[in-house]
């Protein structure tokens, strides 16, 4: 009985391809039949080296440390850039240029992304005290500014927010200087109460308001509703950033407020 060795068909006849590479442990077999359907097999072998894994761990640890240092530095830098951007705009009350407004709001959003107090209403000791408004998107423009005398003889001074946590009260104080009345100063006080409605927000309810001294009241008497309409803090207020000396908040209308901690006068 004889044996016969059968050779595979020639490359040209079978339209097949056999490729072997032992150097990189890769084998590719491809055969095409008469219907031109192709079947391919590919084998790629990867060897993991222990020293490679160790390098990954070392890099991850170093990367985490760098990110923490970068975040801490970045918050400080953002605040410095924000203070610089707020110079010379009088808290934005009489409007700012669109590019400046965009710059300020971009910095505010960067701070909000790095909020160290994500649940501020559960840390009320950080909220209580006196805060000074250094920026707001609420503006007094055109006829409103003229009616309130803020264009000519009345100058708007500090805007303060005094928060009494124990009483659940806020007192907003607007300082005024009036030329020609020999007044050292005058003020508009708005008293409101607040209640916590979430871990980040409070509901503010207007209670009363007064203007002192009487001469200043006579100036604003006809426009009290206008004055309240602009500066009354009533409604939802969400604290979006809070640290030891800076607070950022947004009201129910989307207005932005940036406040800096001050000693109680």
From TrEMBL:
InterPro entries: PAP, PAP/fibrillin_dom. The keyword Acetylation does not apply. Keywords: Plastid, Transit peptide. It is found in: Plastid, Chloroplast. GO terms for cellular component: chloroplast. Pfam families: PAP_fibrillin. Residues 77-259 form the Plastid lipid-associated protein/fibrillin conserved domain. Belongs to the PAP/fibrillin family. This is Plastid lipid-associated protein/fibrillin conserved domain-containing protein. It comes from Microthlaspi erraticum.
């Amino acid at each position: 009985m004889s044996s016969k060795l059968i050779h595979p068909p020639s490359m040209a006849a079978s339209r097949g391809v056999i490729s072997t590479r032992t150097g990189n442990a890769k084998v590719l077999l491809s055969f095409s039949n008469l219907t031109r359907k192709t079947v391919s097999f590919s084998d790629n072998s990867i060897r993991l080296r222990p020293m490679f894994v160790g390098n990954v761990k070392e890099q991850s640890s170093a990367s985490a440390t760098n990110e923490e240092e970068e975040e801490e530095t970045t918050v400080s830098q953002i605040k410095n850039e924000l203070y610089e951007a707020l110079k010379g705009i009088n808290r934005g009350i009489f409007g700012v240029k669109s590019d400046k407004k965009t710059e300020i709001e971009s910095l505010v959003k960067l701070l909000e992304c790095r909020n160290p107090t994500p649940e501020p209403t559960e840390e009320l000791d950080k909220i209580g005290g006196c805060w000074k408004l250094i920026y707001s998107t609420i503006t007094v423009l055109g006829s409103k500014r003229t009616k309130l005398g803020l264009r000519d003889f009345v100058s708007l001074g500090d805007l303060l927010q005094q928060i009494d946590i124990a009483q659940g009260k806020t007192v907003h104080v607007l300082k005024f200087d009036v030329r020609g009345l020999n007044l050292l100063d005058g003020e508009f006080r708005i008293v409101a109460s607040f209640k916590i409605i979430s871990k980040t927000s409070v509901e503010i309810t207007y209670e009363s308001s007064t203007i002192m001294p009487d001469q200043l009241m006579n100036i604003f008497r006809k426009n009290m509703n206008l004055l309240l309409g602009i500066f009354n803090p009533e409604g939802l207020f969400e604290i979006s950033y809070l640290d030891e000396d800076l607070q950022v908040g947004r009201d129910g209308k989307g207005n932005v407020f940036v406040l800096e901690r001050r000693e109680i006068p």
